[in-house]
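Could you join me in thinking about how sequence relates to backbone shape in a protein? Would you write everything just below, so we can both look at the same thing?
***
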Amino acid sequence: MPATRKAKKSVPSSPAAGSKLFVLDTNVLMHDPTSLFRFEEHDVFVPIMTLEELDDHKKGLSEVARNARQASRTLDGIVSAAPERIDAGIALDAPSHGLASGRLFLQTEAINVELPAAMPTAKGDNQILSVLMFLARREPERTVILVSKDINMRIKARALGLAAQDYFNDKVLEDSDLLYTGACELPADFWETHAAGMESWKIDGRTAYRVTGPLPGRLLLNEFVYQDGERPFEAWVREQSGRTAVLETLVDYRHNRNSVWSITARNREQNFALNLLMNPEIDFVTLLGQAGTGKTLLTLAAGLAQALETRRYSEIIMTRVTVPVGEDIGFLPGSEEEKMAPWMGALEDNLDVLNGAGGEGGQWGRAAAVDLVRSRIKIKSLNFMRGRTFIQKFLIIDEAQNLTPKQMKTLITRAGPGTKVVCLGNIAQIDTPYLTEGSSGLSFVVDRFKGWAHSGHITLQRGERSRLADYAAEAL
């Protein structure tokens, strides 16, 4: 690693024992502008070609362009505060506020490494690979690794005998199966093993239990627990401290007397979801599940019941990411709502069900009910959300798996007093480039909000659309 100059050639400094040197591809900085600070005690090297490609991508209003500008500003701040000579690297401890203890190295000399004849030297990726080859030869005692989001770039690096890795720091979890589901099955002997010192009392017709033991100590606030058998039990965690938890039984929305906009829950997870959606103390709800599990229908029913019947919310606002599954059909005419209409087919389909379920008074009565319902639902585009504040609204974010963590933060922070935010999605159907199940904004908020007293999550397991849809989801 460069430290001092001798005959116009850098001499490596003495790296910390066991530290590695990571060479960053441009797409890593454009994916996460703070990636410079994510390598802890290891050193980071930024080639000149990476800076050139950042400069090429900085123009525009896209998320990539914004990230490129942010990465450039971060680099400028680090270099501006550095000593005059940067050959020995720039300490990242101060710029990262203690997150990183390694050093940042910029390419300060021309590097000429012979690439295989089949690899054109004019291509930016190949120039970065030549820098990687140069560093690997110059510092054979040290591990030099390329970090890139580009699969083909990593394959080429490995074909040349060089180490390459994906950038994993943006991932909430490595395996989507480890994502918090929001529900936990109690063992068959739970009541016997936790009977000592257990208390119970009534709250508005529901029963609460205070239990102490190892399992209650692992539960999270607003996590659902259930037990099957002759006497099935369903509850959720309302208090949790150390090894003690308070379990409170649920409102049974499977019974017609507790129907929501004439909709009843068809399975256990739907009952859990309606308890979250109808509880005024829960400000943020995330519902995951494959197509046909009832996410949108349950959410719209809960929103209409609370906007039109109890008047807890003044209106329902629905938005979603406009990422096409196939080729884009081009610009759409009309106002904001008219442009969003083709993307809101799920809303129309579910409104037809809800209007049919609750329609009374003949054809004229149903027509009046449809007009009233539509007047309370507003369709908004994500493009115009920044700077807004929603007060006493029921905000639905559909297809939330296509949002990045940064976009998700922008949306959720729009919530003002009395607003409830509901995120719906299926992390197995991500259409946004560069997003995975582990790095999706939906996975991000599920993980970060779990255990907060005013949020809840449930993964809907069972499809209720049709036997054809259920079989297709399993077989295809």
